[in-house]
Amino acid sequence: MTWTPRRPGRVFSAVAFTVIGAVAALLLTAAGALPRDRERLPAAGPVDIGFSQDMIVHHQQAVTMAQAVLGRVSPSVAQLATGVELNQIREIGQMQGWLNLWDAPQVSSGPAMTWMSGHQGHGGADDSGADDSDADDGAMPGLASVDEMNRLGELEGDDLDAYFLQLMIRHHEGGLVMTAAAARDATDPHVRAFAVIIATEQRQETATMSGLLSALGREPLPLSG
């Protein structure tokens, strides 16, 4: 069975995400978050660009998972899913805006996580609060597989609540691996600060999800998936 979100009207297309990014770029510039003159932008290194490209992909799956369960889960889980959806759409827009201002591709043409390849075997916790050693194999950490997404579309009741929470907790833990590296190694100070903000937000959401999952009598999934 091929998984299809049961709320197709809520799924953002690639075009919609691109529009969000363009608007975010204009708002960031107008608000003074980034200079109006491209020549005055902080230099964007491979970590800035690679992190933004890969985190957009990572966030888009979280948005898809959240949209797929709305209307099907309990009110407490739905509230959490809505918060994840809105936060990650906003952050996608900011990262797409940066890529636009840097004249960088919105999507990487190579394998995921190559921007972390220079740090394999050197994992460690830092200001974003995660250990990046789990990204050493080059895979994007925390992503749900096709089979897992299919199962998310099929479950109901408490089983759906619990599985969504399990997948999203693991997804957030994977995101912390990425923010740890960006907070440490990004060239642009805006990107380093943003990585810490994402990490703080996702730790808070993870704490809430862990409480909801515990109340259902279920355990988190291992990050290795």
From TrEMBL:
Keywords of the record: Membrane, Transmembrane, Transmembrane helix
Segments traversing the membrane: 12-34
Domain DUF305: 48-212
UniProt-annotated stretches for the region Disordered: 116-143
The keyword Transport appears for this protein: no
Compositional bias ranges of the Acidic residues kind: 128-137
Matches recorded under InterPro entries: DUF305_CopM-like, Ferritin-like
Pfam families per the UniProt record, alphabetical: DUF305
Protein name: DUF305 domain-containing protein
